[in-house]
Amino acid sequence: MSATAGKESPGYYACRSDEIQPGERVIRELNGRSVGVFNVDGRFYALRNRCPHEGGALCQGPVTGTTLASTDHRFVYGMAGRILRCAWHGWEFEIASGRCLADPRLRAKTYPVVVIDGGVYVLMERSGRTQAQS
Amino acid sequence: MIIDCDVHNSWRSSRELLGYLDPYWRDVLERGELPGGRDSFPHAHRPWLHPEGFMRTDAVPAGGGPPGSDYDLMRTQLLDRYDVEYAILGGDEGIEVSTLANPHLASALAGAANEWMVQEWLGRDPRLKGSIVVAPQDPSGAAEEIRRLGEHPDMVQVIVSSGSQRPYGDPVYWPIWEAAAEMELPVAAHLGGQGGVNANPTGTGPPSYFWEAHALLCETGMGHVASLIAQGVFEKWPRLRFVLIECGVAWLPAILWRLDADWKALRKETPWLDRLPSDVAREHIRLTTQPLEQPKDVRHLWSALEAIDGERTLLFATDYPHWDFDDPERLRIPPAWRERVLRENARELYRLPRRAAEVAAPETQRSPG
C-alpha cells in the first residue's frame, strides 16, 4: 500500500484523511515502524511511536495543551491540541516539530505527511537492514 | 528473564472487597462515607494531586477499569513483553490503609485486600507472587495478619506504606517485626501513605507541587533506614530483611556515611548496636531500583551504587503500570551487575525457585540498553 510521493522518500499510506478528525490520531505500522498520524486543526503530522526519552509508547499518550512560559505565578494555558504527552512518563512534545518542551535538544522523530486524493501518506526512508536493531 | 519487584494490581472497584469482609465492615464499606464515590477505597489521599493522573496512559484496559486491573493487559504489556520470571505484586491502594485513623477498619481492609490478592490474582499465573499488606497503626492486628497468611506459598513479603506515624524502628512496631521474623518474610515499605494520620511525609512541612514532592519522598526512606538501624531491629531479629520500594537509591550512600560518622562518636546512645550502620544496611536492607536516578554522566550514578554494594543490594522494579515506569532494557547499572540486580538478588531474598524455561515468553526484539 505504498505510493511514491517524492523522489527519494516513498509515501506510505496511513489512512483516508476523513478517518482522523481534528484532535484525533491513528497509529499504524508503516515501513516496519509504529507511527502516529495526528490531525491538528486540519493539518496532518506524523511521529514515530517511540519516545526519545525511554522508548515509551509516545503516540498512545494524550493530546493536550500546556502552560506557556510565564513569571510571577501566573498560569497561562496555551498550545491547546498541539502537545503530545508520552503515555509512559508524560514528557511533552510539540506535535508539529517533535520538540521536547523540557529539553529542546531532544526531539521525537517526525515524518513529513502528504495528502493525495484524500489519502494520507507518511514519507519515510526505506528501512534497511541496519535499522532493524534500533 | 527478570524478576520485577514492584508491580501494581488493582481492583476495578473497592466493592470487589465486600465478600472478603466481616459483616460489620462490609456494612461500613457498602453504606458508609467513601472518599471518592462508591467505587473508591477508604483512605486519606496524599495532598499532592498528580496533574496528569498517576498511570501510564497506554495501560488503561480496553474493557474499562483502572490500569493494573486487567490481568491479560498486564500479561501483554509486562509479563510476556519483558520475559518476567516473577512479578512481585504489591496491590495498589491497599497500603493506603495506613492513613486511616481507625486501626480496626485499617486492619479489616488490609485483610480483605490480602484475601482478594490470594483469590483473584495469585492463582492465575505462576509468575505472580503477592505481598501481605498490613496496617502499621495496628501493630498487634498486623502481626496477626502476618501469621495468618505467612505460610501461603505465593505470599513472599509483608508490605506497608513509607508514609507512617513514626519511623519503623520504633518499638511500637516491634510486633510487626517479630511476626515477620517468625514467618521468615521480608518487610517492604512502599512509597505511599502520605496523608491522613501520617502527617509528616517530609521534614519541612508539605511541598507545593507534585513533582517537587515526588522527588523528596525519599525522605521517608531515609527516616526508616536510620530508625531500623539505630533501634537495633536487625540485632534483635538477625534474619530480617527490609525492602525500600520506590524511594530512590542514590541518596543512601550519603545517609550511611553520616550515620557511620555519628555512630562512631555517640555509639553510647545505642549500646545494642556494635557495628557500623553501613554494615548493617548492606546485610539487611534492599532497595528497588525504580525510579532509578538519572544523572547526565552515568558514572556518577554507578559510583553511588558501588558505595552501597549495589550489585547485591538492588532489586530491579518497573512500577508497572504507574507513570514513572522503568524499562528493564534501559536500566542504567553496570553491565556486570545485570544478572544479580535483574533476577538473582530477588530470587535469594524471596527464595524463589528457578522457573522452567518452557513457560518463558519469547525474547523481545529490542536489544538490551
How does this structure look, described?
The complex is a heterodimer of chains A (134) and B (369). Chain A is mostly beta strands. Chain A is built from no helices and eleven strands. Chain A has strands at 2-3, 11-16, 25-30, 33-40, 43-48, 63-68, 76-85, 92-94, 110-111, 113-116, 119-123. In chain A, the strands form three sheets. In chain A, strands 1-2-11-10 form a four-stranded antiparallel beta sheet, with no helix packed on it. Chain A has a four-stranded antiparallel beta sheet with strand order 3-4-5-9, with no helix packed on it. Chain A has a three-stranded antiparallel beta sheet with strand order 6-7-8, with no helix packed on it. The model of chain A is unreliable at 129-134 (pLDDT under 50). Chain B has 369 residues and is an alpha/beta fold. In chain B, 36% of the residues lie in helices and 11% in strands. In chain B, helix 3 packs parallel to helix 4 and helix 4 runs parallel beside helix 5 (174-183). Classes of the chains: A mainly beta (134), B alpha/beta (369). At the A-B interface, loops of A face loops of B.
Brief write-up:
The complex is a heterodimer of chains A (134) and B (369). With 134 residues, chain A is an all-beta fold. Chain A has no helices and eleven strands.
Count of distinct strands of chain B: 8
Percent of residues of chain A in helical segments? under 10%
How many structurally independent domains of chain B?
1
Based on CA atoms alone, the radius of gyration of chain B comes out at 20 Å
CATH topology of chain B: TIM Barrel
Model regions low in confidence, pLDDT < 50 over at least 5 residues of chain B: 360-369
Beta-strand segment tally of chain A: 11
Oligomer category: heterodimer
Number of helices of chain A: 0
CATH H-level superfamily of chain B: Metal-dependent hydrolases
